[in-house]
């Protein structure tokens, strides 16, 4: 399941970069995140509680930030497993200045398996967009601004 | 009951062929059936399975410590806990061509090869507790690349489902008749098609289930199992657990649909549940839930055929060739039965002088495949009938005329096809009248008037099409089935046989056979199936064989009991045995009905408490055990015809009319036979348009609920017209042939032709099944783009 979108944030690139690298901001803005423990630089152990269709459950796994080119690009990957199966996602984030603010382009590729795949696959697109949307909404609230794409449209 | 009166005069003893209501129905319809989930034993525990969410992964580590410590948990097993039962499960049907006969494990040792493969087994005080505890097990998986499709699995450098064998091809097998190369070389016309059939599930109303109970004081293991083969399960359990077969009782009580996948021997749960019951000393129950049924119960139908036909200018077949891929799924316990049946069903009712059939059985990271109603027959018929439709179109011949020109004629039986069938015996058709079935089907569907009717619909902007397809169905293969018949002093007759029953109406059709022989009514005959404690020999209910193999064993045993009754009554009535007759529940001297005894009194007298027994009685009671051991199968045939309508805008398909002309030899009970065909056609229609097991690119099953996997309902399935032609089989005393799969076999072929006929103005070609509204719209869009 591939998703992509853009958001405009009312803060300069450097500020946005700092925020999306800040464990505290990630913890606050990642929907369903119950725990985020830094185990190495840019590597976290995460516990998420997410519901896809009728399948709600808890996933534990890793969140990692790689391919960093400060202050404009990184790859964020997340993998978790739990009772309802597993989910694996990878996304890229690219920042570019846009006037006073920042244009954030993101892409994501989500894979799920087990019960959530069998029961939740058809809902995944919608749920994925909603969760990513929540993430950026939270960033916007932190930094100010508005967006386009699934995040900004809601 | 009206059927009862209409067919039988009060004095008649002819129940064979009578449309009588089923003995089992009052009990089932009043909710008094006993299915595995109805078995509730004191102190019973409940099991749940942790299944792999990955289609292919290495298991690095399993941590069950939290699960074992959870309240209400009696046991948590992983592969490490299985001891001697940790090896690969039994290889069912070996074949010389099957070089990699891979079977799965009760619990995966180090690698999982399909999403749904069992990894851990939890036993707890309730199913709720067991399910919750599954969440406390942590499995560390290392995902591996996935071979999701036949194309992927056979591509160079494909991910290997079993890395130790260096290939995904489990078997490569070829059968040939004549010299196909020569025939094709000299043929004036040759046509090629690539034909694809996708996966489906059997969807029994009752999913699988097992209950086991162990008595350490008597060393007795009792197992209730929703299986089609209780006796082989009993034999296997005795061997695996080191028990006497005598001390293991396996009961397949009422089974809510079998359709093939319930004859696996063994599914992991059939070993794990008894193991837990023995270790824990308490009964254990596991009932498969619907989602498990979509991943853990065997599936079928995925094949890709590259087929070619050579014909002369008149459409006479010179040769046929098919090279196909058969998707075995992750393991191949059942061997090559499905692809062999596909290749040997393909020739059907047609004369094919030169034939080449070659297949590769291929592992993929999907649920294991084993026979599901049809078991390759629908594929063979789909390929053959699609080729003939192509011939008709290319040569400008009438489609039924092409078929008629190639039909085997009634005077050509026995007809040797020249192949080896699934029972390892020559494929030799015993009897049939193929032209008569085709003629009758065309008459019933008013084929001659079709062009005019179709024109009339088209002038109203409606796209209706007619399809006709022929098939031959191999049935009634050996090795044997048996039966014990006992007349009780009450006059009631007990029949015990080893074949299980999953809705086929054995309690009635077997009773009819016995009633005729013993001069009683079917209601006086109590048929017991599926309990190894009652009859100990048998192989199972599969391949449309119960009526043929068990039915004839019943007939032979009933004849023997009849003879015994005459011998005993001769002495009691002081008349020669030759003059003793049985009728209306009584045994009497011919022409002197007053000199008579009830059948029950004869049974009572045949079991004296004192004094010497006449030597000619050869033991007590009115009882006999007989076996029927056919040397080869018997071959049914039929023709399906249908009228469908396609809405080119929505892609929706409506089946307006569906009729079946069918010949399965002598009919025991037309009511039951009609029901068999109704169910088969409904399943066939499901596989044509509604039912599709979808997997994503990572072989994740996506259709694991009835919201995604659409089983046709009464709204989609039309009412059927069915007519029976009776060409008795010369191969068994009753003259019967099997009918269990007849309904499903040519449905895809007939509907494909009908859809092409309906959409003829657009030139849509159907080369795949199942279809869907979306797919039909795509096909329409493609032909509209390429004028």
Report on this model:
The complex is a heterodimer of chains A (154) and B (787). By secondary structure, chain A is an alpha+beta fold. In chain A, 32% of the residues lie in helices and 53% in strands. Chain A contains four helices and eight strands, in the order E-H-H-E-E-E-E-E-E-H-E-H. Chain A has helices at residues 13-20, 23-29, 115-143, 149-153; strands spanning 2-9, 33-40, 43-52, 55-69, 73-82, 85-98, 101-113, 145-147. Chain A has an eight-stranded antiparallel beta sheet. Chain A is globular, with a radius of gyration of 15 Å. The two termini of chain A are 20 Å apart. Mean pLDDT of chain A is 84; it is low at 147-154. With 787 residues, chain B is of the alpha+beta class. In chain B, 28% of the residues lie in helices and 25% in strands. Chain B has 20 helices and 29 strands. In chain B, the strands form seven sheets. A seven-stranded mixed beta sheet of chain B has the order 3-5-1-12-9-10-11, with helices on both faces. In chain B, strands 7-15-14-13-8-29 form a six-stranded mixed beta sheet, sandwiched between helices. In chain B, strands 18-26-27-28 form a four-stranded mixed beta sheet, sandwiched between helices. The longest helix of chain B is centred in the C-terminal third of the chain and has 28 residues, at 546-573. In chain B, 54% of the residues are buried. The chains are: A alpha+beta (154), B alpha+beta (787). At the A-B interface, strand 7 and helix 3 of A face helix 9 of B.
């Amino acid at each position: 399941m591939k998703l992509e979108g853009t958001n405009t944030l009312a803060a300069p690139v450097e500020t946005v970069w700092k925020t999306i690298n800040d464990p505290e901001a990630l913890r606050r803005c990642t929907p369903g995140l119950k725990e985020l423990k830094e185990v190495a630089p840019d590597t976290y152990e995460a516990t998420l509680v997410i519901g896809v269709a009728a399948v709600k459950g808890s996933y534990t796994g890793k969140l990692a930030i790689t391919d960093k080119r400060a202050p404009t690009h990184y790859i964020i990957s997340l993998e978790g497993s739990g009772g309802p199966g597993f989910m694996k996602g990878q996304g890229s984030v690219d920042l570019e200045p846009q006037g006073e603010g920042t244009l954030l382009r993101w892409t994501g590729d989500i894979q799920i398996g087990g019960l959530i795949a069998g029961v939740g696959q058809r809902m995944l697109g919608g749920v994925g967009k909603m969760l990513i949307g929540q993430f950026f909404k939270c960033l916007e609230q932190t930094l100010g601004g508005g967006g386009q794409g699934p995040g900004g449209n809601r | 009951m009206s059927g009862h009166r209409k067919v039988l005069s009060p004095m008649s003893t002819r129940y064979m062929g009578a449309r009588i209501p089923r003995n089992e129905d009052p009990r089932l319809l009043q909710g008094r059936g006993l299915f595995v989930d109805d078995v509730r034993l004191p102190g019973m525990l409940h099991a749940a399975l942790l299944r792999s969410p990955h289609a292919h992964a290495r298991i690095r580590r399993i941590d069950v410590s939290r699960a074992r410590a959870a309240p209400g948990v009696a046991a948590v097993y992983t592969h490490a806990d299985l001891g001697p039962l940790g090896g690969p499960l039994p290889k069912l049907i070996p074949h010389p061509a099957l070089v990699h006969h891979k079977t799965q494990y009760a619990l995966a040792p180090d690698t999982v090869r399909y999403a749904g493969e069992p990894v851990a087994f939890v036993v707890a005080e309730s199913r709720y507790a067991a399910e919750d505890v599954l969440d406390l097990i942590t499995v560390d998986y290392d995902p591996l690349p996935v071979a999701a499709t036949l194309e992927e699995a056979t591509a160079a450098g494909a991910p290997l489902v079993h890395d130790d064998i260096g290939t995904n091809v489990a078997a490569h097998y070829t059968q040939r008749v004549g010299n196909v190369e020569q025939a094709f070389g000299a043929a004036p016309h040759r046509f090629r098609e690539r034909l694809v059939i996708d996966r489906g599930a059997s969807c029994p109303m009752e999913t699988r289930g097992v209950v086991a109970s162990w008595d350490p004081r008597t060393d007795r293991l009792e197992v209730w199992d929703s299986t089609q083969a209780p006796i082989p399960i009993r034999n296997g359990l005795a061997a695996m657990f080191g028990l006497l077969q005598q001390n293991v009782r396996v009961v397949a009580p009422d089974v809510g649909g079998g359709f093939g996948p319930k004859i696996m021997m063994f599914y992991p749960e059939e070993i794990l549940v008894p193991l837990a019951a023995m270790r824990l000393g308490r009964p254990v129950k596991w009932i498969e839930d619907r989602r498990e049924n979509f991943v853990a119960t065997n599936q079928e139908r995925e094949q890709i055929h590259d087929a070619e036909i050579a014909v002369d200018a008149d459409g006479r077949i010179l040769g046929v060739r098919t090279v196909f891929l058969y998707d075995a799924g992750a393991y191949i316990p059942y061997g090559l039965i499905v692809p062999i049946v596909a290749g040997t069903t393909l020739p059907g009712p047609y004369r094919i002088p030169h034939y080449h059939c070659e297949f590769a059985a291929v592992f993929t990271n999907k649920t294991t495949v084993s026979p599901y109603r049809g078991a390759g027959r629908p594929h063979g018929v789909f390929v053959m009938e699609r080729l003939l439709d192509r011939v008709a179109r290319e040569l400008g011949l009438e489609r039924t005329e092409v078929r008629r020109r190639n039909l085997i004629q009634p005077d050509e039986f026995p007809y040797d096809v020249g192949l080896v069938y699934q029972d390892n015996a020559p494929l030799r058709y015993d009897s049939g009248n193929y032209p008569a079935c085709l003629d009758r089907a065309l008459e019933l569907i008013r084929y001659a008037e079709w062009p005019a009717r179709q024109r009339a619909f088209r002038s109203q902007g409606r796209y209706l099409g007619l399809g006709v397809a022929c098939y031959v169905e191999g049935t009634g293969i050996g090795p044997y089935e048996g039966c014990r018949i006992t007349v009780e002093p009450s006059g009631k007759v007990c029949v015990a046989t080893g074949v299980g029953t999953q809705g086929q109406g054995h309690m009635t059709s077997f009773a009819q056979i016995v009633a005729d022989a013993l001069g009683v009514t079917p209601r006086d005959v109590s048929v017991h199936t599926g309990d190894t404690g009652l009859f100990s020999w048998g192989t199972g209910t599969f391949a449309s064989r119960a009526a043929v193999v068990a039915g004839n064993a019943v007939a032979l045993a009933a004849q023997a009991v009849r003879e015994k009754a005459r011998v005993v009554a001769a002495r009691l009535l002081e008349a020669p045995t030759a003059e003793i007759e049985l009728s209306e529940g009584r045994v009497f001297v011919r022409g002197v009905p007053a000199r008579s005894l009830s059948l029950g009194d004869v049974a009572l007298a045949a079991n004296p408490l004192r004094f010497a027994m006449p030597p000619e009685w050869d033991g007590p009671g009115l009882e006999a055990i007989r076996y029927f051991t056919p040397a080869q199968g018997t071959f049914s045939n039929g023709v399906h015809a249908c009228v469908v309508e396609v809405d080119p805008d929505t892609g929706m398909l409506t089946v307006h009319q569906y009729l079946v002309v069918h010949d399965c030899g002598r009919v025991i009970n037309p009511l039951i036979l009609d029901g068999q065909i109704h169910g088969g056609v409904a399943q066939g229609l499901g596989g044509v348009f509604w039912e599709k097991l979808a997997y994503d690119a990572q072989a994740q099953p996506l259709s694991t609920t009835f919201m995604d996997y659409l089983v046709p309902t009464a709204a989609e399935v039309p009412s059927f017209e069915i007519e029976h032609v009776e060409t008795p089989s010369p191969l068994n005393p009753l003259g019967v042939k099997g009918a269990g799969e007849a309904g499903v076999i040519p449905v895809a072929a007939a509907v494909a032709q009908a859809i092409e006929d309906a959409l003829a103005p657009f030139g849509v070609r159907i080369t795949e099944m199942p279809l869907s509204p979306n797919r039909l719209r795509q096909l329409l869009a493609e032909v509209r783009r390429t004028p």
